[in-house]
Amino acid sequence: MNNISQEDYLTAIFRNLDDAGEIKPNLLAEKLEISNAAVTDMLRKLSRDGFVDYKKYKSIKLTNDGESYAKNMLRRHRIWEVFLNQTLGMSWDKVHEEAEKLEHSSSDELINLLEEFLDYPEFDPHGYPIPDKNGKIKKSKSVVAITELSENDIVKVIRVNDDVKNLLSYITKIGISLGKEIIIKDKLEYDGSVLVKIDNKEMNISNKIASNIFVEKIK
Predict the structure, then answer these.
(1) Could you tell me the sign of the dihedral formed by the alpha carbons of 12, 178, 173, 95, in that order?
(2) Is the same domain home to 77 and 132?
(3) Of the candidates 30, 69, 32, 71, the residue with the CA atom closest to the CA atom of residue 49
(4) What is the pLDDT of residues 19-76, one digit of tens each?
(5) How far apart are CA 176 and CA 64, in angstroms?
(6) Which of 49, 63, 172, 201 is 20 to 30 Å from the Cα of 90, by its Cα?
(7) What is the pLDDT of residue 2?
(8) In Å, what is the CA distance from 215 to each residue of 29, 31, 131, 163, 167?
(9) What's residue 181's pLDDT?
(10) Which of 38, 62, 86 is the endpoint of a domain?
(11) Between residues 33 and 127, the one the model is more confident about
């Protein structure tokens, strides 16, 4: 990924914080697919600007200003995704890239008007919550990745990671969408793949795919 903006860094940090509200610099570099040196350079700038708490060899934390900034960018991005998907009919595997462009050129006034036009959506097309204009985020349902399930579990898809390249287009082809019911038939220990049943068809999905699809148990 080239020419990553300050906004993209802050959003990536916020999206990948651990339970302690931190993220390690090397993990951020991995998520952004750039070098550790490039991340270090930007973290120094973000620290000087008051958006992150960063010290060498320590995990990163967002300041209050950094968190507010990140939430606002997420709000812009996800509202654009809803608009592109629901109003223009763009498929859910294409809206992420387009929203990445639009979020940077939109005013808060435009985003507020879009939100009103869309009747105040709470979740984007991939199941992620949309922060409101005050930065409040609706609590999501408790979900787990498919890799965490057991044989014979019956689940419903609640959220899909929209950051993994080509994931959405692939799972669309095999019939997975939000709200889709999936039955776990078997888990293969040697490679971590999962045998699932979707619409009366059995198929094997890789560990990477299964770890990026989040579900709630029905049975």
Answers:
(1) negative
(2) yes
(3) 69
(4) 899 999 999 998 888 999 999 999 999 999 999 999 888 899 999 999 999 999 999 9
(5) 37
(6) 201
(7) 41
(8) 27, 22, 21, 17, 16
(9) 96
(10) 62
(11) 127
